[in-house]
Amino acid sequence: MSNWTQPTLNMLMAATLAIFLAGPEVAVAQTAPTAPIGEQTSVPMPAAAENNPALVTTPPPTDGSALAGGGAAVLPHDLSPVGMFLAADVVVKSVMIALALASVLTWAIFFVKTLELAFAKSRIKRAVRVLTAAKGLSEVETELDRRAGAAAEMIAAAIDELSRSEVLLDQAPAAGVKERVASLLARIEIRAGKRMSAGTGVLASIGSVGPFVGLFGTVWGIMNSFIGISKAQTTNLAIVAPGIAEALLATAIGLVAAIPAVVIYNYFARSVGGYKLILADAADAVERLVSRDLDYRHVRKAQPRRQDGYGHGADASIARIG
């Protein structure tokens, strides 16, 4: 070999020997198993890494509280209506209870007033039929009893006024008696209509105020949700959703209480209006009976006078003839 090739061969032999000796160590390093994340041990940081915090990375949390079932968010509350009610704030819970009681009151008024209106209409219609077919107050007084309701009160008031005005009937015009009877009947009619309308004002109040009460609970619940977000310093759905759901439940209960109240109030307004019309018919029938009795009385008083006048006239003519 020449002198210039000898150094080259020595360098190739040294490189081959180095690769042969380093090969097993590289293979072992590549096939060594990696320790699990939870079992990894801390490795001392070099001085350069300790002085530079940007080089140190923090592993993500693996406690399982935020992820479950393949990464799905787990809500910390039961989002059923009962669960949301139990987990709600004291103010929101009070609003829900008040609205629930208002809804129960609405349906109680509906059932009670429906039965009351049905019986009252049945009684007053029967009384109107009897009053229309009667010829005088005395006849009606025997056919209708106190269970006839407002019609019986009207008849009793008319008979009482006629008895009080007995002395004046022959001395004063009958128009005064009719006016007094009409005044009494109008007051009885107004009282009966007001008595039948009792309770419907509560329905109007629930229908108008219920949604706003539910909205108050919603605003309060959302405010508490934002306070919870600021404390937790996160906008995670698991933190935000329960409070907002509880707040919206208050609005839903408010609508459940208000909508039936408005519908039932309108129904009773129409029904009470029809009942008042029947009362007006009964009052008119009583006035007709009073007017008829006064006319009968006037005729009975006038007949004897007419007969006496006829008798005196005949005697006078006979005397003139004689």
List the helices and strands and how they pair.
Blueprint: H1 6-31, H2 47-51, H3 81-87, H4 90-133, H5 137-143, H6 150-164, H7 174-197, H8 200-232, H9 237-321
Low-confidence stretches: 24-76, 310-322
- By helix and strand content, what is the structural category? mainly alpha
SS field, number of helical segments: 9
Q: Biggest sheet, in brief?
A: none
How many beta strands in the DSSP annotation?
Answer: 0
- Principal-axes geometry comes out as rod-shaped
Give the SSE order as H and E letters. Answer: HHHHHHHHH
How much strand content do the residues show?
under 5%
List the domain count as a whole number. Answer: 1
Overall pLDDT confidence: 74
What distance separates the N and C termini?
Answer: 205 Å
Cα-based radius of gyration, to the nearest Å:
50 Å
Query: What fraction, in percent, of the residue positions are helical?
Result: over 70%
Domain MotA/TolQ/ExbB proton channel: 179-272
InterPro entries: ExbB/TolQ_transport (IPR050790), MotA_ExbB_proton_chnl (IPR002898), TonB_ExbB_1 (IPR014164)
Keywords: Cell inner membrane, Cell membrane, Membrane, Protein transport, Signal, Transmembrane, Transmembrane helix, Transport
Family: Belongs to the exbB/tolQ family.
